Amino acid sequence: MKAALSVILALGIANTTAEAGPALDRIQSSGHIVLGHRESSVPFSYVLPDGKPVGYALDLCLKIAEGVRKKLKMNSLAPQFVPVTPANRIQMVMDGKIDLECGSTTNNADRREKVAFTVPHYITGARYLVRTDSGITELAQFEGKTLVSTKGTTPLKSITQANNERALHIHVVEAPDHAKAMEMLAAGQADGFVMDDVLLYGIVASRPDVAKFRVVGKFLTIEPLSIVLPKNDPELKALVDEEMKRLITSHEAVAIYERWFLKPIPPKNTALNLPMSYLLKDFWKYPSDQVPY
Which residues form the Solute-binding protein family 3/N-terminal domain (predicted)? Predict the structure, then answer.
């Protein structure tokens, strides 16, 4: 029955059934869907001063949630928001504490052993945020200096590996979240902050002293960012993938992108002015959850 249902869902012609799979069954019986959000991953998923979670990835998740509601023929489906961190986000999905993780998480081979991903919503790469007066423009200039990154992220893993392989003697330190890493850089406790460049631009844009910082260097990594969902739940995955592809082909996802990357965003009402990259444009021509990383 489940195998047949998976095929039906994948074809996009399912209605609803008592055997909808573990996550869909729970969503239908409880009347809510649990969305994991970040606290400082601007503009993907972050919290406003009034405590409201917002962001590009969250908007996509809310659209997906509406697609789930329609497929399950529910009159209403209430989203519940649960904060997650880079360190616990994967485990929260694995433990069933959230249905979708709506943030800035990289789809890579290591994580695919534990969780599933839908079609990437952004493709970025790790670079370096420095103080403008530092004179640093590339990785080699961090030799003997301190670089901070966020615990549980691929940039932290990648810079640690590069540091060891190239014998750069960089002091690599972990911060619990992006906000703390930025605080360390601003206070002079670190000489650079290595993270996905789009997140660095977002973090700086929300500060009053934007001119004091700049993003530098070549890409250390290529990061396809995706919404995360439970592994081994083909019914949920088929439905989420179908809805994500619909959002892309209908250009609804493009409008959501423009809302968060080209127009003023809260709380400062500052625009990031980051047009869609050719990498994402090309990938969305034939949207797939398969990434070569």
Answer: 32-264
For 48, the 3-state DSSP assignment is coil
The strand pairing partners of 149, in sequence order, are 174
Domain enclosing residue 173, as ranges: 126-216
C-alpha–C-alpha distance, residues 28 and 7, integer Å: 20
Which CATH number fits the domain that encloses residue 145?
3.40.190.10
Same-domain check for residues 89 and 47: yes
Q: Are residues 247 and 118 in the same domain?
A: yes
Cα 145 to Cα 172, 182, 191, 219, distances in angstroms: 9, 16, 6, 19
Residue 192 counted as domain residue: yes
Residue 209 lies in a domain: yes
Return per-residue pLDDT of the chain as tens, 293 residues: 444 434 334 434 333 333 457 899 999 999 999 999 999 999 999 999 999 999 999 999 999 999 999 999 999 999 999 999 999 999 999 999 999 999 999 999 999 999 999 999 999 889 999 999 999 999 999 999 999 999 999 999 999 999 999 999 999 999 999 999 999 999 999 999 999 999 999 999 888 899 999 999 999 988 899 999 999 999 999 999 999 999 999 999 999 999 999 999 999 898 998 989 888 999 999 999 999 77
- Cβ-proximal residues to 137 (8 Å cutoff; 6+ apart), any chain: 216, 217
